[in-house]
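Suppose you are handed only these lines of text.
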Amino acid sequence: MTGTGTRVRTGVATHPGAVREANEDSVLVAPGVYAVADGMGGHAAGDVASAIVVRRLEGLADRDCVTPDDVRAELVAANADLLADAAANPERAGMGTTVTGLVTVDAAGTPHWALFNIGDSRVYRLAGGELTQVTIDHSEVGEMLHAGTITEQEASSHPLRHIVTRAVGTDPGPKADLWVFPPSAGERFLICSDGLPLELTNDEIGAILRATDDPQEAADALVDKAVAAGGRDNVSVVVVDSERDPERDSAPDAAPDAPSSDVTAPRARPTT
Ligand code: MG
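From them, the structure of the protein bound to magnesium ion can be written out as follows.
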């Protein structure tokens, strides 16, 4: 995030896991754009689907100024890209993908994060030592959990837990959840495909993120642990750390983990 008073450090890791032959996840780390997409579809079309969507989002990194509306527009365009590719390549009919991540945007003249989600990949936020899942899983079980009709424990073994209710590549296109909030010193984001929480609990994920300062080492550790724990699905992670630029921000409130009024912002309901 050059020129905004905030810099980021990132780490990225992806692995097919211990069971699947192909890795249908795609990851994106480009200036101001960080994302994970988890492709679905027979005949190896899932990797095509996730790659197409990530390529579309990568175009945001080349722009001088990105707004939340631009993020929405690129997600709509990504859906059209997928439908067009499937129409031109009938063997890929029905392919789709999740996508979730973060984009540096300009909102009301100041830098913000736009955190977006379609599907059951996730973004977590670690701030003040506390790990919170920001995204709401677009799955049968995720929506029941969010509505309070089942418990976390029931969700973990529910037969519908892998049924995704929103995906890129559908007609009509999916509605994206979007949260827009200012960056906060010392916060860390984890963007991941569902292969990570399939193998590790939120407590285990939080412990690794708290114990490992370097974002690349944290990303590698998360993927290694998930594969060692069973690796039943592809597993992909992007770790993004917000860091204040000390030359621009020397005020006392720039200390990492300082409580601030925006800490709760990304936990609120998304705009849809
Ligand atoms: Mg997956």
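What can we learn from it? Residues 1-5, 249-265 have pLDDT under 50 and may be disordered. Helices lie at 45-58, 68-88, 140-147, 152-156, 195-199, 202-211, 215-228.
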